[in-house]
């Protein structure tokens, strides 16, 4: 049985994309569901080209490309991250994504490939127990 991962809707023309979590941990196109079934936070890169969604059950971040003309999403890949990711943020230049997990004691720094949107783990740092929010602050 598949478990729903995300549903994105556009009020102007209805459904954009629906994806499901498969038992093997890979996100694949799936059946239509209600918006209330979506899980995890979402973030879009500053240039609007890529969307990321956390999937807490598989401890992954799903990457999608965004069609600038239509807003339609194309699934790219799922990248393992912190246990039960509850919060993540993309830094203002869109080069890095920082993720925290509710069941993890570390925080992950992922590089965002500017051409493909792929995430690559760069570093993990201590973050304490139960982290569920990431805020990127700029000083100066």
The largest sheet, given as strand count, sense and whether it forms a barrel, is: 4 strands, antiparallel
Q: Please state the structural category.
A: mainly beta
Distance between the termini: 50 Å
Proportion in β-strands: over 45%
Strand order, main sheet: write it out: 4-5-6-7
Q: Can you tell me the overall shape?
A: globular
> Helix proportion of residues, in percent?
under 10%
Q: What fold name stands as the CATH topology?
A: Methylamine Dehydrogenase, Chain H
Number of helices in the DSSP assignment? 0
Report the CATH C-level class: Mainly Beta
Features:
140 residues, mainly beta, Methylamine Dehydrogenase, Chain H, four-stranded antiparallel beta sheet, disordered N terminus
Could you characterize what this model shows?
The chain is mostly beta strands. The chain has a single domain, classed as 7 Propeller (Methylamine Dehydrogenase, Chain H). The protein is built from no helices and eleven strands. The termini are far apart.
Question: What's the short version?
Answer:
This protein is an all-beta fold and 140 residues long. The chain is built from no helices and 11 strands. It has one domain (3-126): YVTN repeat-like/Quinoprotein amine dehydrogenase (Methylamine Dehydrogenase, Chain H, 7 Propeller), CATH 2.130.10.
């Amino acid at each position: 049985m598949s478990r729903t991962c995300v549903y994105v809707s556009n009020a102007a023309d209805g459904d954009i994309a629906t994806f499901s979590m498969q038992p093997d941990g890979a996100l694949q196109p799936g059946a239509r569901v209600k918006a209330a079934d979506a899980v995890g936070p979402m973030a879009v890169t500053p240039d609007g080209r890529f969307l990321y969604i956390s999937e807490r059950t598989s401890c992954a971040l799903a990457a999608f490309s965004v069609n600038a003309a239509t807003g339609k999403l194309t699934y790219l890949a799922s990248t393992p991250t912190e246990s039960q990711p509850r919060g993540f943020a993309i830094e203002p230049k869109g080069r890095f994504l920082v993720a925290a997990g509710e069941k993890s004691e570390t925080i992950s720094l992922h590089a965002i490939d500017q051409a493909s949107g792929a995430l690559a783990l760069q570093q993990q740092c201590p973050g304490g127990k139960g982290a569920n929010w990431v805020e990127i602050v700029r000083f100066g």
